[in-house]
Amino acid sequence: MRPGHKLTDDDRTDLADARSRCPDLDAVADLARGFAALVRHQGTGQHLDAWIERARNAGYPEVRGFAAGLISDRDAVVAGLTQPWSSGPVEGHVNRIKTIKRQMYGRADLDLLHKRVLATP
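^ thats the sequence. predicted structure below, dont judge the formating
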């Protein structure tokens, strides 16, 4: 899913060969690249509806299911595509805390977890 300009010549050739041999792969790759472009290039989200319509008309149940999920939570998806802020730092802290918790599973109580979380930078 790397952008085309970041592919090596060999990767580009291999991808073109695979896509030419498998029309289903070609169609799904086009949809995936289209969605990746929506996410990478934050803007107004104006192309979201067109992408959803393409995905809903695709012959792949997984892609149609993904599109249905986007429709059901459209306001949140548009906000995610258009707002300048990210929940990435918060997700990173949650992941760090869960990792510490898993390391300690069955070995310590909540007090030690609390000390480890606060002591870790």
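The two ends are 33 Å apart (CA to CA).
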